[in-house]
Structure prediction request, 228 residues.
Amino acid sequence: MKYDNSARRSLLAGLGAAAATFTLSARSARAQTPAGAAFRPARHEQDAWLNALPGKHRTFIDCATVSGAGEGMLYANNLYVANQSGYQLTESDLAIVVCLRHFGTVFAYNDAMWTKYGKAMSDLVGFTDPKTKQAPSTNLLNSADYGLTMSNLGSTIPSVVKRGTHFAVCQMATQFISGQVAATVKADPQALYKEFTSNLIPNSHLVAAGVVAVNRAQEYGYTLLTAL
Prediction:
């Protein structure tokens, strides 16, 4: 009985100490975040372009796959068409950003890069020309000639750029892709990285990482739309 009572007193003392610690921690947390205070995200110069785009409505389309990159062009086009027909809004009323990250990043590079490194990029992401079944020698999202055989259904990079679409391009993926291509063609990785970043599609913004851009865009009031 003496042992049991002692053990019981120790347990209760321990629980009491834990409760006191929890209460103190909760009070400290409340002291750090005043009641009713709204969260305000930090602002960074690197993200200022997101806030500079004109438009009454903001949409950020996240494209992390090969098919998702094509769908990103389609979704951007549909946003312009539907807002015009349903709300009589103009293209300048919309701020639309397509984020090309992960394997979708290969479509952030212009035709010159696909002409030189199309085979290496094709092997890396498992993508071939639907017509020839070979590695593309151009960026196929620049072409409207593939119709239903590609996920963009004819909506192209030039067509959405003309309407005002901008692109967030993943730097981390670009570093990875250029490194893999360099290993394949026996070239200097840093030289290829500079070449890739100098040959991005129009209206492109190289961001630290696509996943970071997804976060920052929402902090700037963009609605997130995911293209699979």
Q: What stands out?
A: The chain has eight helices and five strands. Strands lie at 57-63, 94-100, 166-170, 204-207, 223-227. The radius of gyration is 25 Å.
